[in-house]
Amino acid sequence: MSINTNIIQFPNKLKQLQEDKKKKILHIRDEIEKVLSNYSNIYGDEWAVVLAAGRFSSMRLQQLEGSKKCTEFFLDCIKTQENSRINQ
User: Fold this and answer.
1) Mutual orientation of helices 46-65 and 13-43 as an angle, nearest 10°?
2) SS (H, E, C) the chain
3) CB burial readout 51-72, b (16+ within 10 A) else e
């Protein structure tokens, strides 16, 4: 008989909560990107939609997280885009 037979393995709730939050964030991101793409198509002005979305996101993120984290986030986005195959 194994010594571990009486041990009950509890689910890792923290890990599950983190995975659920990540799924939620990715879902929201994907849905917002679809909405913005639709607006670009409807109005025929991608530049205006990009500026409006960028203004909203940069100003709200600065209010929520502060200037340093906001700047780091946008620099990370730019680096990701520069390194992606989309940009090539």
Assistant:
1) 150
2) CCHHHHCCCCCCHHHHHHHHHHHHHHHHHHHHHHHHHHHHHHHCCHHHHHHHHHHHHHHHHHHHHCHHHHHHHHHHHHHHHHHCHHHC
3) eebeeeeeeebeeeeeeeebee
* Spatial contact of 22 and 31, defined as CB atoms under 8 Å apart: no
Mean pLDDT of each 10-residue bin along the chain, 88 residues long? 71 88 96 96 96 96 97 94 75
pTM of the model: 0.69
